[in-house]
Write a structure and sequence with these properties.
Elements (H helix, E strand, L loop, with lengths): L1 H21 L21 E3 L3 E4 L2 E4 L5 E5 L5 E5 L2 E5 L9 E4 L5 E4 L5 E4 L8 E4 L5 E4 L5 E4 L5
Antiparallel strand pairs: 1-10, 2-7, 3-4, 4-5, 5-6, 7-8, 8-9, 10-11, 11-12
Amino acid sequence: MIKHFVRRGLPVLALALLPVLASVPAADASSAPAAAAPTARSDSHFYGGSTLHKNQAWTSGNGRTVLRVQSDGNFVLYKDGRAAWQAPGVWPKANSAVFQEDGNFVVYDSNGNPVWAAGTWHKGHYLSIQDDGNAVVYNSANQPVWATNTGD
């Protein structure tokens, strides 16, 4: 029985341990501390036809930035959990926010009437909710055409 285990069991055990052993970092001969790797951005992008309804929010990849149509009819950007921007003249009428096919970013009331717009008609390509605390509409050349100006 021991011969059977040695002949068959050890190679299988060794193969099973290879991924674990391969993931252990090799010893570094230098004593200098390693530089921290840059943090990758994970901004959220929304394209034409994207709709945000009352009591819903769009969030940046790291969760730091939240753009919300609130239950009280306000349209607010939160940065680090605090209100940093709100669409002027919207409260208490906001029912939905739409990044439209025509590139404009618009807030509508419950009757479908626009109550605020970013003014990006035929300019906007996508809306980005960014990790730095900003919401930005970019054109097709990836240049900003509108922003909340709340980023770091």
